[in-house]
Amino acid sequence: MNKNIKHIAILIVVIIAINFLGSKIFKRFDLTADNRYTLSESAINIVKDIESPLIVDIFLSGDDFPSEFRRLQKETNQLLEEFSAENSHVIFNFINPLENESTREQNIQQLTQRGLTPMQLSVQENGKATQAVIFPWALASYNDQTVIIPLIKNKIGATQQELVSNSVQHLEYTFSDGFSKLTKPKRRKIAILRGNNQLEDKYIADFVKKLGEYYFIAPFTLDSVASNPQKTLKDIKAYDLIISAKPTEAFTEKEKLVLDQFTMNGGKSLWLIDAVTMEKDSLYNDTGSNFAVTRDLNLTDFFFKYGVRINPVIVSTLYSAPITLAMGEGSQSQFQHLRWPYSPLANSNSNHPIVNNLNLVKLDFANQIDTLKNDINKTILLETAPLTKLEGMPREISLDLVTQEPDPTLFNKGNQALAVLLEGEFTSVYNNQIKAFKLSEEKNKSIPTKMIVVADGDIIKNDVIKNRPQELGFDRWTGKTYGNKEFLLNAVNYLLDDNGLINIRSKEIAIAFLNQQKIATQKSKWQLINIALPLVLLTFFGIGFNYFRKKRHAS
Fold this sequence. Notes:
Layout: H1 2-24, H2 41-47, E1 54-58, H3 67-86, E2 90-94, H4 104-113, E3 119-125, E4 128-134, E5 137-142, E6 145-150, H5 160-183, E7 189-194, H6 201-211, E8 216-221, H7 229-236, E9 241-245, H8 253-264, E10 268-272, E11 276-277, E12 289-294, H9 300-306, E13 308-311, E14 314-317, E15 323-327, E16 334-338, E17 345-346, E18 361-362, E19 368-371, E20 377-383, E21 388-391, E22 395-398, E23 417-424, E24 449-454, E25 464-465, E26 468-469, H10 484-496, H11 516-521, H12 523-554
Parallel strand pairs: 1-2, 7-8, 7-9, 9-10, 10-24
Antiparallel strand pairs: 1-5, 3-4, 5-6, 11-12, 12-22, 13-19, 14-21, 15-16, 17-18, 20-23, 23-24, 25-26
């Protein structure tokens, strides 16, 4: 008896010790081939120092979702479990705003006012088609601040399965990005260049507003270069990045020298350049036409030295965004979406984090970029579809083109580069040359730095309706949203990134979905296999067991 009590006591002590060690030692194992549940080091660094509750409310909740979106719901839950495992201050809740019929409409209105617009889906399961409304959004709150986190990663032309695959692949980045906004103070400073007749503030307002969530933003004029270039150079060095959005007035040699030395000192830059003078608005006249001519910005040698050349040609392609025109006479006229080859839709086959899983980017009267041989590493970020042709200057552009059937054999120039990333140690444009003014600290070789050149200034231009800036990339005529804002934001984040957050975007996750058509047609077969077959096997087992049991006892 005493021996049994002793064994029981030892067992109790062992169980208590195991439970104590289990509470102190915690390890999760990710057995997936793509390590989808292993957080990136950058994501871990963002949440590891959180010292007060970070509350995440996810509105992607409900029982009547399509199977694809139930998958997104599950993946979101599992990802947030990983964040919570890294830091217990990350607390998340799934909320169904449509669950209570009495408050349903009020909840929809309140969420929509906050910018969390609902999404309507077609549900095709079990051979039936129905409609469902979901809110693919989350709200993250920390220290009296709240950010909106989108769970859906839109892509033009994507099916619901492709939409969910893109969204799942984007989840870690979008949550890390949201948490970073809440927990990491702004440090970097961006200068929006003025003085060369760049786009007015109202035409870049939406993107600048978005940038303001991450960085300090300020205008910077180069006008003072003429009177005090040395001071201008000193002042611009206080910024980490400069953005020149569609300059239309030529740069002087003093201005170029200031910008060159900014690069030599490690400054990053984003250039959005039009090498041709042509605006879509200039076609809306009595003749419906205008002439496109070369625009001289005095930057050819500037970019040539760094390793690129923007050619004064217009890129025309069959894979482009439509133009919306009123067709017909008087009250019979109707708006129609017509083929317009001068608005190329650009993307990239690269898995570079700036463009990985990116929606199509819309440009207008874009130019072609050549890359030149030097020591700078170059990455093509945006390019046209293969069916492309190049049109030289000067050239008349007419809206009559929309009524003409294009000849595909003329579009034979293949993919054309429209945006290029330059990385490395740059050589000064003015190396071994007479300078426009005397430099107190001259540098002819830069420290490692980065630059992005886009051969279209309109890529950053948002529509303005009744003097109110609209969302960048949104086409109010077709209702489509292009990837312009995301591309530019990724570009700036990459140029300024110091914690590797942008690299999370290159993480590849493969999502497998069930074939809904096969499910509908083979439903009975698989129900029979999964329900009847086990019962049949169990019956045969019972019969066999009893047979051999009786036979054994009979002998």
